Amino acid sequence: MNITIISVGKLKEKYLKQAVEEYSKRLQRYCKLDIIELNDEKTPDNASPKEEQQIKEKEGQAILKAIKDNSFVIALDLKGKMLSSEEFASFIQDSNTRGISNFTFVIGGSLGLSQEIINRANYKLCFSKMTFPHQLFRVMLLEQIYRGFRIIGGEPYHK
């Protein structure tokens, strides 16, 4: 299985980089993982809705260029479906059983994802109605992917 994570924004904090490295290492036995970091567009203070829309669209274009044609795209979106860890594991396993082996998870920038990315997504997933920094969210996503593989394999995991 191939998993790509496309994330807008670079990790700056050492502790987040270390967490990403740790989960990337753990995932090696379950999948081929590729993490693509895209530059985020600077949002001026007091940006107008039109400026915010333009920023999301520009980031969206960069995301679209990074998505492989044959990939099943999962957009991380506040309006997406919320799943438990067990349901997420079943979703991955069921999708794989149906022949899907290339998954691309998309984490937007601080303003979220453009409508074009939402439309391109095959599935929209929401972790919580809370808002998280996109850099931290990358770690959270990797942890849940790792947990999902542990559940699929019938291996112990912390409930």
From TrEMBL:
SUPFAM superfamilies: alpha/beta knot (SSF75217). GO terms for molecular function: rRNA (pseudouridine-N3-)-methyltransferase activity. S-adenosyl-L-methionine binds at residues 76, 108, 127-132. It is found in: Cytoplasm. It comes from the Bacteria. Its EC number is 2.1.1.177. One of its GO terms (cellular component) is cytoplasm. It is an enzyme of class 2 (transferase). Transmembrane segments: none annotated. It catalyses: pseudouridine(1915) in 23S rRNA + S-adenosyl-L-methionine = N(3)-methylpseudouridine(1915) in 23S rRNA + S-adenosyl-L-homocysteine + H(+). InterPro entries: Alpha/beta_knot_MTases, RlmH-like, tRNA_m1G_MTases_N. Keywords: Cytoplasm, Methyltransferase, rRNA processing, S-adenosyl-L-methionine, Transferase. Homodimer. NCBIfam families: PRK00103.1-3, tRNA_RlmH_YbeA. Belongs to the RNA methyltransferase RlmH family. Specifically methylates the pseudouridine at position 1915 (m3Psi1915) in 23S rRNA. This is Ribosomal RNA large subunit methyltransferase H. It comes from Clostridium amylolyticum. The gene is rlmH.
